[in-house]
Amino acid sequence: MARGTTGRRTSLWRLPAMRALVGATALGFASYCLTLASLPAYAVQGGASADTAGVVTAVFLLVTVAGQGLVPGLTARFGPAPVLAAGLLALGAPAPLYALGDSVPWLSAVSAVRGAGFAVLTVLGATLAAQVAPAERRGESIGIYGLAIAVPNLVAVPAGVALVLGDHPVLLAWLSACPVLALPLLPVLARRVAREPVATTSSRAAVRAALAPSAVLLVVTLAGGGLVTFLPIERPDGVLATAALLLFGVTGALTRWQAGLVADRVGTGRLLPVALLGGAAGMAVVAAGLGGGDGWVLAGAALFGAGYGAVQNLTLVSAFSRAGEGGSTAASAMWNASFDAGTALGALALGVVAAGVGLPWSYVLVAALLAATLPLARTATRPA
């Protein structure tokens, strides 16, 4: 356990590699979050139907999922720093091209390139978060990493929606190029990895071990993808959707950060089922509020965000614990693929369901699905 000369535990924020990881992660996810909920709304403004606007997000995340399985092998061959640099460039450099058109095919084509870069960032970011701190403080380290993701979610998702609904898509496109600014941070991470190489074993055992936590995550991110994609379309005046997504981001940031600290002390077994049920309750409240109670929409978004953030942290901690040290990169790839597949399914499938039964009932069905995942959540926290 890392301690200072006074006997107190050294703050993980003081580690140069942690600060570099936080900076690179925040810039990368700011780009992702700026476009996550705003591009579907941008496509609708350009004439796309509401039930096909989610294709843009789905393409981005499907390419991400496809690329995540390749990251362990690329990292083993070239090293994490060069691969991460390539990923940041692929994620950020094409983003200004969004300003050239608002059709679904064009937005999807640009998103496909960016999705490959996001695949690298997600897998290596999570893996490095498990490596830059002592093993007994892994939950805390993953919590800080989660905070670096959640703060952009807090700020950039509603900001992106506000920019598009306020008719500023060109500014959105250029702001989304921000991952390029993270390149100067990579030498610090490279020095840390040189001392403690990142495990790159892609074993079937590690993937199997990470399967149950990743499946729980997939269901939760499906719900999240449905919320951020279709709430701005259902409430296009911009005020309610922006406020709800802001609350969703605030509570998600807090719980994703703090859940790791608690998990280091009491384990994930007690916390994950509670977080999952909280998320289910939040989605049900949002569904009820869409009938006319804006206050209920805000309360539900806040409650769902709390469950959403905690589940992300707890399932990642469980996946690493079940996979073991040698399987960390394979477990990260599995976990991240589930995260992005779930978000893509939420953005795509919920549009189809909502076209038939309406968005409120679609959210009710999602809440029921979250509650039905409780037995799997208990399995996910047990040793593999």
TrEMBL record:
<dbReference type="InterPro" id="IPR052714">
    <property type="entry name" value="MFS_Exporter"/>
</dbReference>
<feature type="transmembrane region" description="Helical">
    <location>
        <begin position="142"/>
        <end position="165"/>
    </location>
</feature>
<dbReference type="GO" id="GO:0005886">
    <property type="term" value="C:plasma membrane"/>
</dbReference>
<dbReference type="Pfam" id="PF07690">
    <property type="entry name" value="MFS_1"/>
</dbReference>
<feature type="domain" description="Major facilitator superfamily (MFS) profile">
    <location>
        <begin position="16"/>
        <end position="384"/>
    </location>
</feature>
<keyword id="KW-0472">Membrane</keyword>
<feature type="transmembrane region" description="Helical">
    <location>
        <begin position="171"/>
        <end position="190"/>
    </location>
</feature>
<dbReference type="GO" id="GO:0022857">
    <property type="term" value="F:transmembrane transporter activity"/>
</dbReference>
<feature type="transmembrane region" description="Helical">
    <location>
        <begin position="271"/>
        <end position="290"/>
    </location>
</feature>
<feature type="transmembrane region" description="Helical">
    <location>
        <begin position="239"/>
        <end position="259"/>
    </location>
</feature>
<protein>
    <submittedName>
        <fullName>Predicted arabinose efflux permease, MFS family</fullName>
    </submittedName>
</protein>
<dbReference type="InterPro" id="IPR020846">
    <property type="entry name" value="MFS_dom"/>
</dbReference>
<feature type="transmembrane region" description="Helical">
    <location>
        <begin position="106"/>
        <end position="130"/>
    </location>
</feature>
<feature type="transmembrane region" description="Helical">
    <location>
        <begin position="333"/>
        <end position="355"/>
    </location>
</feature>
<dbReference type="InterPro" id="IPR011701">
    <property type="entry name" value="MFS"/>
</dbReference>
<feature type="transmembrane region" description="Helical">
    <location>
        <begin position="83"/>
        <end position="100"/>
    </location>
</feature>
<feature type="transmembrane region" description="Helical">
    <location>
        <begin position="53"/>
        <end position="71"/>
    </location>
</feature>
<feature type="transmembrane region" description="Helical">
    <location>
        <begin position="296"/>
        <end position="321"/>
    </location>
</feature>
<dbReference type="InterPro" id="IPR036259">
    <property type="entry name" value="MFS_trans_sf"/>
</dbReference>
<keyword id="KW-1133">Transmembrane helix</keyword>
<feature type="transmembrane region" description="Helical">
    <location>
        <begin position="211"/>
        <end position="233"/>
    </location>
</feature>
<keyword id="KW-0812">Transmembrane</keyword>
